[in-house]
Amino acid sequence: MTRSLRNLPPAFWGLIAVGVLAAFTQPQFLSLPFLMILLRQAASIGIVALGQTFVVANRSLDLSVGANIAFVNLILAHAMWSGYHPFVAIVVALAAGTFIGFANGVLVTKLRASAVVVTLGTAAIITGIGFLYTGGAPGSSISDLVKWLGRGRVGIVPVAGLVWLGFAIAAFIIMRRLALGRFIYAAGDNPFAALFSGLPVDRTLLASHTLCGFFAASGGVLLSGLIGVGSINLGADYVLSSITAVILGGAVFGGGAGGAVGTVLGTALLVTVLNLLTVFGVGEPGKLIMQGLVIAAAAIIYQQGRRNG
């Protein structure tokens, strides 16, 4: 029992603490309508964070997710799709985002290059292509279907929240029920041992980056629907936020006990804390400082718990 409690992600205890704080200071924060608003806000970053979980568990990182989201947004908002079914633009956007992740994986595995350097370079290239594609003037032709995905509701439940749930279930199955997930954890824990054991280490890393690209693009679709217009810089803050959510979920670079459930909890905690800070009147500089402190505290607490376990 004690070991099980120690292995719970920091986000679990953080959500309890934040919930108690909100109950005493801002009771309306825990009302059902407000929680549904938080769910809609958390969906896009939650999906991106799930994608980031694959690469972090595999001792890698993707710093191009923000540029991926922006590129997806620019595709969806471009006027060239006005004569086509909205589904076509969504498929093209998802394919582009998935290819970005695949390209990251190829460069990291084939060139043995640092994932930080590769994904930063990819982000710069994508941003440049986005400027060329739009001429520096992002469109506003977001289809009603995309807006419904980002803003719509089924009863009182946001459609985006249901989409996030579907992606969370898929990520859980991949990480905990499929061979790919076992390969990810094994390669992330000790890539040399995994390689000598005959596991497809390179293909596993390539699959992780490809999945991350697809999940980032999917989160970009939801965020585009929520915003409703094109934006060159959309998703720039999702790089740090997605990494924060993964670490809050208990993952550490080189494997960990995070996974899909931990990342969902980490996303929920991150979005809740940032909104609670807004209610308390804390500005963006304070939020960034808090986010950095949360990352450091979560990593220290979780690592200490594993050592004591």
TrEMBL record:
Keyword list, A-Z: Cell inner membrane, Cell membrane, Membrane, Transmembrane, Transmembrane helix, Transport
InterPro entries in the cross-refs: ABC_transp_permease
Superkingdom as given in the UniProt entry: Bacteria
Pfam family, any one: BPD_transp_2
Compartments where located: Cell membrane
Bilayer-crossing regions: 32-51, 63-81, 87-108, 115-134, 154-175, 211-232, 238-257, 288-305
Membrane-related topology note: Multi-pass membrane protein
Name of the protein this chain belongs to: ABC transporter permease
Source species: Hoeflea poritis
